[in-house]
User: What shape does this take?
Amino acid sequence: MAIDYKKELISAAKTMILVHDLRLLIRIIVRTIVQKVKVTHAGILLFDKGKESFVLTVSRGSKGLRIPEGFARMDNSNPLIRFFTLRLDRKILKDGSLTTREAKRKLKDKKLKPAQKQLLKAAIYQMEIFEAVVCIPSYFHDELLGILLLGEKKNGRDFKNDELDFFAALASDVAMAIRNAQLFNELQQELDKKHHLFIHTTIALAVAIDAKDHYTHGHTSRVTQLSLEIAKKLMKKNRKKFDDKMIEQLHIASLLHDIGKIGIPESILNKDGPLDETEQNRIKEHPIIGATILNPIKELGDAILGVKYHHEKYDGSGYPEGLKGKQIPLLASIIAVADTFDAMTTDRPYRRGLTKEEAISEIKRVSGKQLDPRIAAAFEQIYLEGKI
Amino acid sequence: MPKLLIVDDEIDVREFAANFFRKRKIEVSTAASGEEAISFLEKNKPDLVLLDIKMPGIDGIETLRRIKQIDNSIKAIMVTGRKPEEEQAFETCKKAGALDYVHKPLQLDELERIVLKNIK
Assistant: This one.
């Protein structure tokens, strides 16, 4: 019975490695200790790079002993911090944890140098200020990451040796977990940076496509906006299908849907009048050209399908492959609706664009024929909500 | 026994600090806002006031001004954050008559020293 909290702490240690949110992690640790070991209070001083000091990040326990988060700190010059950073713990303590009882006994030790004695005395005083009777340091490769402070046990008894041993073992797990969380955050930031670079590069490419086709200026960004708006609407009905990854792929696919126009002569793209059959056939190559351009970029995944099939029609009358209904990838069907709407409402040299109202009724008319009816319906709803 | 008034909107701060100074043989009263502090000081005279700057309602600086209007001899120490605008706020407090200040997160031994020095 006496040591059954150990199990709890071990299971906490196991969850620790999975938690990448540092604050949450530390909260879990401190809460577990206070509840299971039944101490008056506990807190963790954690090194804060920005403040260049150890800040009491989390503290729990009885009223008056619980120290408010972010209220107290210890600078690097603080005797308790120096005691551990100078690794006096290793020199004069056997199991890594500093208890006031053991420390006071050590003060009488004749082998201790005066400077060490002085520092130890000052460290004890720091512990007394926090009403802590045990301090357990957490190191990662000799770098002090934090210190766990524990108040007395509620039953007034001393901590047993096996308990202290156990805390020391826990502290090393904590250090590992803290370091893990820190590395994870750094990695996440690095990934975010790369991801931004990728998105911005894609946008730059999309702008380049738009620049080539004079009559459709701004077309790509409008289709992208509309496509994402449609996805947002559909997401409310099916959260599972429309996860972050899917939205991201739609974003990329809509930005790049016309990239194949790079391979179409400008004389055709910018022609002042209706296109003849040969010219129309050239234009119809742009989805395949686009997919071919993007194909080497494996990371794009399904986004390429969105580019390749955005001119397929629901009834199978589209191109390049004449896919039908559910054969058409969802990304492509969404882009198709957005693309159709934007093409209808944009002025061309040989015709004026439709009004929004006219375009919507046209979309309703071709829903289930050219366009996927679910997506056309979602689009109409967005229009009725005034978002287009 | 010397008397200390702690003014802070956070209950944990009040309770921790009250407990901390009671153990150091100081009679502690607490107030949760500038308004509460002012009405307390109209009837009582502590030897020192520990006053948080950032509080909803009347902030610490305004509270200090009003305290000084009630009794100019009341001594106050301000508790500030590390943000530059709050550091500047201390300059304003000094003009309004604050004795000293401590930064949050604060070093408890420093807090102890400053309070004990000024409460005598």
